[in-house]
Every structure is written in structure tokens, then in C-alpha cells.
Amino acid sequence: MDNWVENAGWFVGWAVLFLGVLLVLAYRRASLAASTCVLGLLLAGYWVFGSAAEWWKIAVSIPYVLLLLLNVRPLRVRLLTRPFLRSYRRLLPPMSATEREALDAGTVWWDGELFTGGPDWPKLMSAKVPVLTADEQAFLDGPCEDLCAMLDDWDITHRRADLPPEVWSFIKSRGFFAMIIPRRYGGLEFSAYAHSCVLIKVASRSATASSTIAVPNSLGPAELLLHYGTEAQKNHFLPRLARGEEVPCFALTGPRAGSDAASIPDTGVICRGLWQGSEIVGIKLNFSKRYITLAPIATVVGLAFRLFDPEGLMGDRADLGITCALIPRDTPGVTIGRRHFPLNIPFQNGPIQGHDVFVPIDAIIGGFSMAGQGWRMLVEQLSVGRCISLPSNATGGAKAAVYASAAYARIRRQFNMPVGRFEGVEQVLARMAARTYIMDAARSVTAGAIDGGEKPSVPSAMLKYHATELGRMIANDAMDVHGGKGICLGPKNYLGRGYQVVPVAITVEGANILTRSLIIFGQGAVRCHPFVLREMNAARNPDREAGVADFDRALMGHIGFAISNAARSLVMAFTLARFTKVPKVGPTARYFQHVNRYSASFALATDVAMLALGGYLKKKETLSARLGDVLSSMYLASMVLKHHDNQGREPADLPLVEWACRSLLYQAQEQLHLFLRNFPNRPLAAIMRLLIFPRGLTYFPPSDRLGRDIVELIMNPTAARERLTQHIYKTQQAHNPLGLLQEALILSTMAESLEKRIRVEGVKTGRVTALDIAGQITQALHLGILTEAEAAVLRDYEAKVSNLIDVDDFAPHELAAGAGSAS
Ligand SMILES: Cc1cc2nc3c(=O)[nH]c(=O)nc-3n(C[C@H](O)[C@H](O)[C@H](O)COP(=O)(O)OP(=O)(O)OC[C@H]3O[C@@H](n4cnc5c(N)ncnc54)[C@H](O)[C@@H]3O)c2cc1C
Fold this sequence. Notes:
Elements lengths: L1 H26 L4 H18 L4 H17 L2 H19 L5 H8 L5 H5 L6 H5 L8 H17 L2 H8 L4 H9 L18 H12 L3 H8 L6 H8 L2 H12 L5 E4 L15 E9 L2 E16 L6 E9 L10 E10 L5 E3 L12 E12 L13 H38 L1 E2 L2 E2 L4 H29 L5 H26 L1 H4 L8 H5 L1 H6 L4 H16 L4 H9 L3 H32 L13 H25 L7 H26 L7 H25 L3 H11 L11 H11 L4 H6 L12 H27 L9 H10 L5 H18 L18
The site of flavin-adenine dinucleotide has 21 residues, from strand 1, strand 3, helix 20 and helix 21.
């Protein structure tokens, strides 16, 4: 009996030692050769010192012999790599040229690190802090402030359904359309960060103006010309665009081609025709486009169409593919000028049709050599614009909503309390503020990366999706906090139009359901994964032998990577990642560690999903979307941590940082959990669950206490409130509600103490009997409860509050369409 126990003890001891060494080798990503050596030594020790029977020692050595053979490359290639490659080639879904171009576009940045299972934090933390140059700051403080002061959103959205002429000419003449155009062409040549800050400021004032400004600075004629235009085209168009003499639009979408934009049925046929009196070889265009921003007033249309050369006038390719050209508005055959009406946000937007429109070949952006390159051009440039326009506009709107809602919740009293002091409202305000922090962090850190030379295509999809979704949540919350004040439209309503513009942002530049379901993870898994693209390229390599060699290297790396991530996921889940290395950043260290943990679990889930489902994963959009959510949560949490660092790690901002990270990492956990619950291969799901959640779901969302801390920051005139809402238009000016709300917020601290005195010394003792505040102030003054000066302060405050909580009303006839205006 004793002998049996002793043997069992030895057996367990050796088993634990083997497993421990395996775990350490896998966790530390030891190479195949190093792992073989270490395990060989251990096995030799087992043979010498282990007390098991000979047959058992032989049995446990068999896997080791297989491992040893893996090191013999020619044998490995013959027995493992080649058969695997044959099956892989059969399983590999066919890739269209447009998909290939989308995958090749842009760069891989922090998104790539999150796929590694062990992100390189020093790489992110050492990235340059985005700052404004003196010129950029002067533009924000000068023309940008002036523009905001000129904007009367009710006038724009209700009376005119357009920007007033003086605003149009100010925007054009002061370079608002020329932020991405280099100075040598007369543009402002702003950094991505400055460009984003300008949009934030304008968006905090008017969604119509910010949408108008965003478009010429995003994907469109200027950007395409800059990157692909011929010198002649650049010299002709860019100075004119910079001066606002030309107004551009870019027309891709049509009635039959929305999300599936590459399927456009619009054609350009190379043929002979008459151009300015002479016969030339040109392009005859037929097209029908809709939803085109700035189209009704555009002078030059960037047009995407499919180019054909049936007569072989320019070469031997009949179908050249998607091509982009610049078409002057007044070209015969172009019908332009009608407007769509996007949800009461009347930026210029409308359809364009063209019937037998004839233009010369050099209308193609970049000349004939760029014929057929249109899709590549669009996806390459989309990665930058998509990081800036919509995320900045959404962030500007969110910042304004938080700034206004927190102040409103302080000055608006019900049940003798500021409504923001009620726990229910507190919770809503807290999440609004923390979500705004996430948006601001993501847009500013990513803009900084762009200024550092990145073209982050997967982050651009994450930013577009999450900034607009968070914006939607914040717009809803702001409405709830304001109650009826938010609902009644009119000159005094500063929320309604921001609420209405939300679906526009959700829909454009890749509608959100599609972006979440298909693009974020779909593109990320291939582009950012350290081995998948290498394997795909190797499998498609026409030089078969070179392909086998490449595939072998990638496959070996991939197998080691997957084993390592399984080990890392398990260890970090057990230890809650307490022992992982992170930058020295004090109270936020745990959040870095949790990102490490989810990165390993995510990398494991990604590999298993791709291996088990292959091309079918593309069709399983809900699984793909959930993995995309995990990736996005980690990306956004990383941006929050870097942003906090960029802002000097202000201790006061910690509640915002904590709430943001907690909610994002909780979401990562929940989406991984839902991914596992819905994974079709149940045994694999069970194994993954064991490796990812061996202790169950251990992460919790932010606490209520954290919410209260945040509300203290934003319902008081603190530096943290100002930092959170940096760059919005909050100047104290008669028609700027944000400035007026801040003014009232500053007064509220003193006013509240005076009101309390009236309540305690006057109302509760029965000495003050008036029901209205004006009467109470008068009585309190007579009774000596308030001094003259205090009564004046309180009267001033109450007048300001009355003005701010006031809503508009209209004579019945004023509201009918086309009936004119309310003042
Ligand atoms: C105000 C406004 C301004 C615009 N400005 C421009 C412009 O300047 N230039 C331009 O060319 N275009 C512009 N667009 C077009 C815009 O980019 C498209 O509206 C957008 O691409 C979506 O196309 P769609 O509206 O036809 O929706 P649809 O393609 O009909 O999509 C409907 C829904 O189906 C979802 N969906 C579609 N396919 C999938 C899928 N495979 N998986 C999951 N979900 C899917 C979408 O997410 C969406 O929710 C603008 C649109 C609007 C509304």
C-alpha cells in the first residue's frame, strides 16, 4: 500500500513538472528547437530518475519523438506542411480583386498588437502625444470660433434649410474646405489631430455645418488628387479647391449599390466623341447616384464608375474596372441640383444623374494609368478619413451633450433638488461622461498615430462604428436627462438636431451593422493576425515551391502561437493577469493587465474559430461581430489608457478612466462569453471555455460609487469637466447655450447655499410663505435672511435659469411646412 502511494506521488510529481514546464515554454513562446531541448532534458531525467515501468516510459516518449521529428524540416514539409497546404488551398475562399484591395489597404498598428496575445505596451505608450501647432491653435481660436459665433442652428435647420450665404463664403474663404490640402497649393495642411479638433468645435455648435466641412476634407476629390492625381490635375484643381472656388463632392453610392458599393452599375465606355469642337478618344458616362453630400452645390463631381473599352481604343482590356474621374458640374448630360432632406439636418445632399456624358480620358484621376484602380484608391484613402470625420463629429456632439446635460442637471431642480443629484440621473450622467472620454481618447490617440504616418484601416472601422454608436447612446441619454426641454424643437433647443443627426452618422461611410458584422473582425483577422495573411499569400503563391517554404514557416509559427495563446489565456485567467508585465503607470496598471489577458483569450478564440469554421466564419456574422466587439473593446481601452497618459495622468480623471476601462473590459468578457455560447462546435466551445474562463465570469462592470465620483467632476465647474470637453464651442456669448449653461453652473454653488438658507431659515420656520422663488427672495430679503447683494445674486441666477429651462412655443400657423419662422 505504502509503495503504491509513493509511486502515485512520484507520478503526480512528474506529471506536474512536465505540465508546468510545458506551460512555461508555451507561455514564454519558446522556439520549437528550444522547447525540444528543454523537454528532451526533462525526459532524460525521467528515464534516469523516474520509477515507472519501462513500457510507460516508452509510451510517454512517443509524443516527444514526434516533436523531435517536427524539427527535421524536409520530413515535416513532406508529412505535415504539404498535405495541410493542399487542404488549405481547397478551403481558402476565393478572393475578389476588390476584397484583396481592401485587405492590402492601409497599415497595421495597435490593432495588430492586440492580435498577438501579448501587446507591446511600450510601443503604444511611447507614441507621440498629439499637439496643435501655433497656427492650428490660432485657427481654432480665430476663424473656428468666429464661424461658431456665426452659426444659428435654428435658422439653418428650420428657416433656411441651408447655411446662410455669409457662412458659406466664410467657410470657403477661410480654408475650412482645405484642411488636408498642402500649403503649396494654398491649403491649411493641418495635422489629422488639428483637423479632428476643428470638426469637434464646429460639431458642438451645428451638425449641419460640421457635416458640410467634413466632406471635402475626407474621402473625395482633394484627397484622391493629392495621392493619385497627375501634376496637371493637382495644379489645376487643388488651389481652386483650397480657395473654395470649386466645391467638390464624391459620388459612389447609387440606388442599387449601397453597402455593396463595388457593385455599381454605372458605366464609362471609351469611345470617340466631340470635345470642345474636336473629335477625341474619351469616355461616355451613364450613371445614377444618390445620397451625395454637397452634390446640389458642387462644381466638380468625383465620380466612381466601371470603365469599359469595347473597341480596344486604349489597349486590349475590355473591362478595366472601377475608375474615378472628375466631372465638371456643367458638363452636358449631367443632371444635378435636387436635394435629399436627411432628417432635418439640411447639409447639401442629393442625387446626380448622367446620360451620355462625354469627357476626355484625362478626366480620370491620375490619368489613364489609374484606370481600373478606383476601388484601390478609395479603400486606401478611406482608412484615414474614416478615423477623423465621423468620429470627430460624433465626439464634438457628445462633448456638447455632456457639457450641457451635466450643467442642466445641476440647475434644473425637482423635489427641491438638482435632478442630477438623484441616483437614477447620476447613473445616466456618469455613463455619458465616461463614454465621451472613450470617444475622445480613441479619436485623439488614433489621430496622433495618423500624424505619425499610420493609415490604420481596421481602427478606422472600429472608430467609425463605436464613435457613432456611443454618440447615439449619449444623444439618447442627453434627451432623457433634459426631459421635455430636449424634445420641444425651436431656437431654444440645443439638443434636438444633434439627436436627429445620429442615424446619418450611423449610415454613412459603411453602415454600422455591416461594419460590425463584416468589416472589423473580418478585415482584422486577416490583416492583423501575425500569420494568417502570410499563410494566405503563401497558399496563393504561383511559385509553388516558394509557397510551400513560406507556408511551412508561417504554419510552424502559427501552431506555436496558438499553443502559446492557449497557455497564456489559461494562466492569465487563473491569476487574473496579476503577474503580467505592464508599463509603470500607477493606479491604471490592472487595466493594462486585463487587456493582456483578453488579448491572449481573443487570439486563441480567433485561431480556433478560423480553424474550425474556415471561410464559413464570414457567413457567421454574429460570431464575427462578437469577436470584433472584443477587439474593439481592447482597442478602445488601450486608447483610454494612452489618452490618460497623454494628458499627464491627472488623478482627477481616474474615475472616468476606470469607468471607461471597466465597462470596455466587461464588454470584452461578455462578448467572448456570448461567442462561446453560440459557437457551433460544442466540444471545441467547451475546451475554449476551459482555457478562457476557468474561474467563470470574474469581471464586473463599473460600480455606482464610480458613477457618483464622475458626476461630482462634471456637475461642478472643475478642470476635469473642461478637459473632458476640450475644443468644443463654449464661449460665453449671448446665443451660445453651452456658454450660458456654464455661467449658470458656476453661479449655482453660491445660489444653492442661498436657496438652502431661505428653505431652512424661512420656509421651514413658516416665515417665508411665498410659493414662487421670486417671492421667496423678496420675503427673505425683508426678513434679513438674505443681504441685498445675496438677493441680487440669487435673482440674477434665477433669471438665467429661467432663460435656460425655457422652451419655445409657436402660433399654430407657424408650424405648417413652408409657413415661415419663429423668432
Ligand atoms: C446623408 C447621407 C450622406 C451620404 N453621403 C455620401 C456621399 O457623399 N457619397 C457617396 O458615395 N455616398 C454617400 N452616402 C451613401 C452611404 O455611404 C450609404 O448610404 C451607405 O453605404 C449604406 O448604403 P444604403 O443606405 O443603401 O444601405 P443598404 O446597403 O441598403 O443597407 C441596409 C442595411 O443593411 C445592412 N447590411 C448591408 N449589407 C450587409 C452585410 N453584408 N452584413 C450585414 N449588414 C449588412 C447595412 O448595415 C444597413 O443597416 C450617404 C448616405 C447618406 C444617408
